[in-house]
Amino acid sequence: MRNRVFLKFAVLLLVLFSLGYGSTLDQVMEKHAQALGGMERLKSLKTFMAKGMVKLGGLEGTVIEWGKYPGKYRERIDLKILKQDSGTEGSYFWKVDQNNKLAELKGREKEDLVTSCCFNDFCYLLPQTRGEVSTYLGKASREGKGYYLVLVKPQGGSPAKLWINDSTWSVDLVQTTVFQETVTATYDDYRVVGGVKKAFHSHQTTGNPLYDVDIRLQEVSFNLPLDDSLFLPPAERKRDYRFLRGKNLEGIPFDLYGNTIWLKVWVNDKGPYSFLLDSGAGATCIDSGLASKLGLKGEGIVEGRGVGGSQVVSFCKIGSLKLKGVELLDQTIAVISLSQLYATLGKEIDGILGYDFLSRFVARIDYGDKSLSLYDPESYHYPEGMEVLDMEVTQNLPTIEAILDGEYEGKFLLDTGNSGGLVLHSSFIQQNRILNHIKKKVEKSFGGVGGCGRGFMAKMKSLTIGSFTVREPITLLVTNGEGIFGSEDLAGNIGGEILKRFTLVLDYSRGKVGFEPNQTFGLPTQYNRSGMGVTIKEGKLIVREILKGSPAEAKGVRVGDQIMEVNGLKVTPRSLQGITEIFQGQAGTKVNLELVRDGKPIKVKLILKDIF
Q: Is the link from the previous residue into 70 a cis peptide, with omega within 30 of 0?
C-alpha cells in the first residue's frame, strides 16, 4: 500500500532546481549550475534543512528534511494519523512506519531514497559524476511551453525525468513511474535563499485529484551544524504486542478456505470477526462497514493498490487487535471497503491481517495441520531440515527469487492472500516473451481489491523455489495489468495453491523464509475444469464467465445463467466454495447442473476436462 506517495521527491526537488539552456548534457548542466548559484557555491554546501506543510487526501501535517553531504539524508512526515520517518547514514537505508515499526529499506523504496540522495549531493550535476547518472533526452513541448528533458538515474536508484523550462530555466515538472502509472510533480514559487534558487511550492498528482499531494515550504537553511547521529535509525520503541502466556504462541487454528487462511480476530474486545491472513497486504485493514459499526472513523484519503488497480483507503486507530493468545496494541490500520470481495469469495471478510501483524513475529504457517504459530523473533530457531531462503521485504511485501520453466529468473511476491497458484506480471511476460513459448492458453478475467482485469490462463512447465520444483503450475498471465499486478519491480506472485504444499515460516526481521514440503507437495495444482466462473449477485449464484474450449461452453452454458443445483444438491451463496471444489475435480468427472435461464429450468451434464 503506497502511503508515502513519494513525498521525498516533492520536497527535495523544491530545494534544488532551476535549470539552464543547452542542447547537450554538459551545456544543460552548466547552465543549471549557474542558475542555482554557481558551481562553487554548490560545492560549498555541506548540509541543508527544509521545513514545510503537506496536504494529502484531507490530511494536513508537517514535513521536515535534513541532508548532509555526501550521502546522508532523513525525512520525517507527520500527518497525525499517518507518520513516517526514513533516512540513511550513507550505507544503511531505513524507515519507521505509522506503527513505529523500524525496517530496512529494500527494493523500490531504497531506490527512491538513493535518487533522493543523488539530488541532495548534486551528483546528477557535478562534472565528475553527471555523465554516470544523467542522460539528455532532447526537447519537448507541453501546454505551449518548451522543455529540455533530462533523465536522472543514479546507480542503485530509481529514474526521474526532469522537465527544464527553456524560458525560465527552472524545473517545472519531475516525472516518475509507479506501477506503470506516471506521477507528475510541478514546481513554482521560486525564491533565493543563501544565494541558491529553490522552489517553495510543489503539487504532485497521478491524474486523480483524490490522491494529490501539496507541499509548501516555510523554512530552508544551508550549512547548519548537523550531527551524524541524526541520520542513524532511531531505537525501536517498546513492543506493541504481547503474548497472553509465555513468549510464543503455537497452534492457532485457522480455516483453509479456497487456499487462503482465515482467523478469528477481536477488535477493541469485540468479535470474533473473520480476518484473512494476507502477506500480500502492505497494511492491516478493516472493512469500512465493520469500522462504522464499531464507531471507528477513517481519516484521510490515500491510494491503496490491489490486484486490479487502486481503491480509496483511509486510516483509523484501534486500541486492541487480538487473536486467542496474542494481542497487538495501539495500532493504526487501514479502513477499506472489502464488501465487493464477497461476490467472488462467497465468504464475508471483516478485515485483513497484513504487514503490520506478520512483521512483529516469526510466523509459522502449517497448511497441513491448518495452524498458525507465532514466535518471538529474537529467540526463534529454524527446525532442522527446513530449507531457509533469503526474503526481501520491499514496500512491506515479502519477495523471493524463483525460476520459471528452469530458465526465467525473477523476484516473486509470496502472497498468502492469493487463492490461485502462480501469477506472471506483464513486464516479465514481455521481457522474456513468455507467450511465445506457451502451446495453449485461454483468456480469463481476474479480480480483487482495486478492481478486475483480464489475462490468460496456462500451464507452465515448472516453478523452482530453492531446491523445490513445483511441476506444471497453473498460471495467470497478466497481459495489461494495473495495481500490484502491473508492478515492473516484480516478476509475479506465488499464491496459496502453491504455498499450501509447504509448511512456511515468514521471518520479516531477519529477511528469511523457510520451506518444508508437506504431504501434498507432489500433487498436481488444481483449477476449475468446468471453464465456468461463478459469482454472487443479489443473493444468487450466477455464471459470470465461460472459458473458450471448456465443457461449459460445449454444453451451451451462458453468462447470466443462475445455478440452482449441483449434483442434485440445492445451492446458496454459501455453497460457492463447495461448487468450486467440485469444478476442480479430475478430468472425466461428471457434474450435473440445474440452471435457470429467462425463468426456465435447464439441466446440463458436464464432463470435466483439462482446458490447457
A: yes
Cβ atoms 530, 606 nearer than 8 A: yes
Which residues in 359-508 belong to E strands, given as ranges? 362-366, 371-375, 387-390, 392-394, 397-404, 408-414, 422-424, 441-448, 451-459, 462-465, 468-471, 474-478, 492-494, 502-507
Would you say 478 and 493 are in contact if contact means Cβ atoms under 8 Å apart?
no
Among 459, 431, 425, 207, smallest CA distance to 307 is for: 425
Stated pTM of the model: 0.90
**Residue 230, beta-bridge partner list:** none
Distance of CA 54 to the CA centre of its chain: 23
pLDDT in tens, 469-514: 999 999 999 987 665 666 778 999 999 999 999 999 999 999 999 9
* Edge-to-edge strand list for the sheet holding 502-507: 249-253, 371-375, 362-366, 502-507, 512-517, 387-390
Question: What b/e readout covers 532-560, taking b as 16+ CB neighbours within 10 angstroms?
Answer: bbbbbeeeebbbbbbbeebbbbebebeee
Helix or strand holding residue 590 (H, E) = strand 590-597
Q: Are 52 and 212 in contact (CB under 8 A)?
A: no
For cell 524545473, the residue is 171
pLDDT tens profile 259-318: 999 999 999 999 999 999 999 999 999 999 999 999 999 998 887 766 555 678 999 999
